[in-house]
Amino acid sequence: MLKRHHLLIANKFHEETIDRLDQQYQTHHLWKLTESQKKLLIESLEGQCRLVATASWNTDPLIYNLKSLKLIACFGVGIDGIDLITIRNRGVRVTNTPDVLTDAVADLAMGLLLSTSRNLVNADKFVRAGSWQKGAFPFGSGLAGKTLGIAGLGRIGLAIAQRAEAFKLKIEYHSRSKVNQPYGYHPSLEALATASDFFLCVLPGGDFTKNCIGKNIFKKIGPAGIFINVGRGSCVDEEALGQSLSNGDLGAAGLDVYSREPEVNPTLTTLSNVVLLPHIGSATLETREAMGQLVIDNLNAEICNKKLISEVKN
Ligand code: NAP
Ligand code: 8YV
Predict the structure, then answer these.
(1) Which of 113, 269, 284, 288 has fewest C-beta within 10 Å?
(2) How far is it, in rounded angstroms, from Cα 248 to Cα 12?
């Protein structure tokens, strides 16, 4: 019955979910086409197709040409890839995949904190290179009793705070509004950085947060401090990050996200005091399956005229 509904899939976000969508809908794989083929397809779908599925952090702007568009079902929670201004006043609704990925991203954030504070990646290289036989590996920094500053105490930020408490870290945070949690609030990123031994960014991308973490913040985190980013790369001035890590203003960094993925600032790749991950915060089999299920459930809710499961409210 669903098969009679057209669904435009903008990009290849998760193979298993796309296979399932192919079975249920009349799908159109936009990313496989040339630019002129894409335009022709969208023209041919006009008036017949109201559904788009896409990655949340990046989409093809041609989807906005489809005037009959009613729902953009995003795979991912951060919707910085969606042009909310272009679709405003067009009656287009957007869904994302909150909550189901929170634990996976929070686990990875703790992984980055441990990898950087105890220098785990270099320790592994040290053993493989046979250096252990020649001497001991340098000491790392302990977590217990130190302050973890979290920029963005939302769903994922809170899950990180809960994990960090078990490591005996003291939690402080910054977001635009204070939340009802037993952690110290700082009204600015600068104040949070000053108070933090470890500063962790889990902020969304977009214009409001673009380059909001730069040289000034790294200096305040300090030479013994660590910067972790599992939010969005666009929040960070990566040139300043490379310089601060090189000149010793900042002790170390652990990154899962970058401003021009999948490219990584070349300076960062030369430094041994930064751990670089390829945006794998939500990349567990279980989490990606749950994200896909939520995309499917939202699409199905739309065509059955039911309440969307996870609509993004503007
Ligand atoms: P969320 O629940 O909406 O939390 C976002 C937090 O950021 C809130 O505390 C919000 O509080 C704060 N915030 C938003 N804009 C801000 C600003 N301009 N200045 C200061 N604080 C601001 O979202 P979430 O589910 O935790 O996800 C957070 C982000 O994590 C996503 O948007 C995405 O970019 C990233 N993410 C990364 C991965 C990965 O694989 N690494 C996976 C999933 C998500 P206020 O509104 O009060 O400011
Ligand atoms: C990506 C993420 O969406 O949910 C987000 O905001 O950053 C990730 O979960 C994921 O890499 C899927 O492409």
Answers:
(1) 269
(2) 40
